[in-house]
Amino acid sequence: MKLALALVVLAAVACGSATTVPVVGSPLSVSQLKFAVMDSVGRPVYCDPDFYPIARAGGEQANAISTYPQIKADAEVYAAIVAHEHLPSGDPTDAQKLAIYRAWKLLRALVLTETYSGQQYVFKYSIHSTTGSAAYEMVQGTVRVDGLVAVSSRTATGAPNCPICLAASTMIATPGGLIRVTEVHVGTVVWTETTDGIRIAAPVVEVGSMQAPAGHRMVHLVLADGRELLVSPGHRTADGRPAGTLEQGDALDGSTVTRWELIPYTEGRTYDLLPAGATGHYWANGVLLSSTLA
User: Fold this and answer.
1) Are residues 220 and 276 in the same domain?
2) How many structural domains comprise the chain?
3) Residues 134 and 193 placed together within one structural domain of the fold
4) How far is CA 74 from CA 60, 67, 68, 79, 217, in A?
5) Each residue of 120-177: pLDDT tens digit?
6) 129, 180: one domain
7) Separation of alpha carbons 81 and 107, rounded Å
8) What is the dihedral of CA 26, 32, 38, 43, to 10 degrees?
9) Residue 163 resides in a domain
10) Are residues 182 and 227 in the same domain?
11) What angle do CA 167, 195, 271 make, to 5 degrees?
């Protein structure tokens, strides 16, 4: 009898019906499970709908305010966001609505697929790598219905295909003078910045280019000192701000934004580069930016 029982258990395992660890905690909502995965593994890297394929009118804050009623109407999602973000009860401020909106976008970017057993979900998504030489990792694993996360694999991967790069006409600062971004290749020596703000020369370790989608618009920035830049809305400045969130009057790289506008992009492809070093910073048309490849 014991042998027969043992054979039944082994057969069940072989067929996949006994491969999950028994649930020990209370089942969580899908949104709570997504937050459990993100807290354990990392936030997903995705094409933010406020900036890709084109920047949305009004900016992220305006979209957060207009989308708030839709988010609040989904009681399960809203409760999970408020709890996870440690927000107070009652009507949120505009800043809190922005936090809610950003969390909501992350929830939408992370997909969980329920398994046949119904006791766990499978996930597979890209994150910013915290180990190794690759900038991004594709992480795959499972989350049990009570929130227990198990990672099964981590593999190096590339950045998401979002048009977050520079116009083809952009000039890059190098020790030998300015060169077009289209002429930069792996090994080209450019000016970059150290973590303590010192300008140094370093070779480019990665370049990127992609076809801009139909209708793509670029941010045209003009600074008070005469510098101009044409860049995709999601490309970040050296201090981490997406170009699409800047406004007239904002400080930028030692000057002030005097003109901010969205204009159609007709040069076909966008470009980016990654210098060696800790920051990934470089000068584009004289403006210090962060690489999207870092």
Assistant:
1) yes
2) 2
3) no
4) 20, 12, 10, 9, 32
5) 999 999 998 877 667 889 999 999 999 999 999 999 987 776 656 899 999 999 999 9
6) no
7) 9
8) 180
9) no
10) yes
11) 15
3 located within any domain: no
Q: Quote the pTM value.
A: 0.56
Output the six-digit token pair for 34.
């997504």
Query: To which H or E segment does residue 157 belong?
Result: strand 149-157
Of 181, 211, 212, nearest to 275 by C-alpha is 181
Residue 47 CA from chain centroid, whole number? 7
Q: Do 152 and 217 share a domain, yes or no?
A: no
Beta bridge partners of 144: 120
Q: What is the mean pLDDT of residues 217-238?
A: 91
**Residue 230 belongs to some domain of the structure:** yes
Question: Residue 215 sits in a domain of what CATH number?
Answer: 2.170.16.10
- Shared domain check, 277 and 193: yes
Given a contact cutoff of 8 angstroms between Cβ atoms, the answer to whether 63 and 101 are in contact is: yes
82, 233, 251, 288 from 49: Cα distances, Å: 22, 11, 25, 25
Is 40 a member of any domain? Answer: yes
- Indicate the length of the chain as a whole number: 294
Rounded to 5°, angle at Cα 209 from 203 and 213: 160
Summarised one tens digit per residue, pLDDT across range 18-33 is 344 555 668 999 999 9
Helix (H) or strand (E) holding 258: strand 255-264
56: domain range?
Answer: 30-157
